[in-house]
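Methods — Computational structure assignment.
A single polypeptide chain was analysed. Its primary sequence is given first, followed by the predicted tertiary structure written as structure tokens.
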Amino acid sequence: MNAGVDGYAILRNYRKDGSLFWNEVYISPIRDSRGKITHFIGVQNDVTQRCEMQASLKKSEAKLRAIFENVFNAVLIIDEQGRIESANPPAEKLFGYPASKMAGLAICDMLVDEKNNKSDIQIDYFLSDAKTSSVRRNEIYARKRNGAIFPVSLGISEFTVDRRFFIAAIHDLTENKRAEKALRTSEERYRTLFENSVEAIFVNRGGDRIEQVNQACLKLWKADRAEELLAKHPLKLFHPDYHELIKARIHHSMVDNAINPFIEEKIVRLDGTFADVLVSTVPFTDEKGPMIFFVILDITEQKRAEAELQTRKKQYQDLSNHLELIREEERARIAREIHDELGSFLTVLKMDLSWLDKRLSPDSGKYQEKIGVMNRQIEEAIQAVKKIITDLRPSILDHLGLLPAIEWLAENFQQRSDADCVLTIPKVDLRLDPDRSTAVFRIAQEALTNIIQHAAASRVSIVIEIKDQNLLMTISDNGRGGTLQQSLLNGGFGVRGMQERARYFAGELTIQSKPEAGTVIHLTLPINPTGSKNSHD
């Protein structure tokens, strides 16, 4: 006013009631004919609503700027000619340009045809598409400042405020594409492994249908097409004896998400034949929900081979035991022949020498001395023959039975070693068939021989008792220990022979032997013959 010129101001005023309002004021001087200001004219308008709208607009612009600067995706503002007006920080990072360099670039120069590596993308297509009410995203390729090409998802929307412009939202799809490729590779590997697995595999989701089978499944169940198995209830593929077990295992896998280990089951092929298998269930969850992989190993040939092996093994064991029985019979025969022939011959020879000695004259001292030497040699030969006969087949075993033979064996052991031998036998009369008596006697003989050769024991105990129609014999010592156990591990024939003798008569022989803790041999043998004993000719 003092300057005498027009004035304009927006003032904040208060009404009479104390409320705030914004007042727009225009003031102009009025002059007389001499140019002197005589008075002023003023016009004022209440512009409170306009000021409040401008304040809200500034706040909105600030919010939009904050969103623009801080969103995760790259955002570009593009004019009608397709040139970039501004870019947010994620766009700078994505394309490798500073904001000052991106302004003015044509968006079509940053979008490429990945196959031809050319910037021939028609941006007009995207801009015209942006006029629609919904934003359509397109997967295309973009180029960084360094020339690297990468996949993106591009969405463009049109806006008009004081002019027409476009907002482009760009999302980098590099990691998505990499993940998709990894997923495809994984699925291809799964498919390859599934289809080419040696094990039969089918997929079930706990219901009454099979979802997927591999080629090994078709072969195992003798199916020509997968549909033949897919139409079956899973339980129908297995023997009825295993249905309850399979239900429990399916429930365990589905509810507890637990892997069931392989167990032996039996399947029913499509042609009605059976096959022995090992079955395991493995739980898994995909986008459709939980499911179970049934992994089946065909062990039919293995079971057949095992059965054949057991048959062969039994045949060899029977042959070995048969030969052992024949050997015992042959020993007894040889012992009898030696006793009858050689024993009789030596006895007659001794009698003849005695007759000759009595008929020599008293002055035949030299001849009498020679006859004495011959008598002693014959006596030694007789004792040697008796030992050979006893080693071949103790006559006491045939004439008096097992228990007296064990008593003789214990006495003989004590004479041959420095160990004390304590024998405990039942007072009742024990009657075993000759073959069983021989087996028990030979086991005891082998055990005592091992003690003499390896144990260095000072005390040995032999206990024989009868319990539940079984003969129980326990031979223990306080020797070094470990030798019989090691002999068993090394395949020693003496220990193996003891076990085979026991097994042949449906018995069992166990050995407990620890270093410096002695050895305990325990034999259990049925007294009466059972079906497990093999007959021999």
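Note: Residues 472 and 524 are 5 Å apart (CA to CA).
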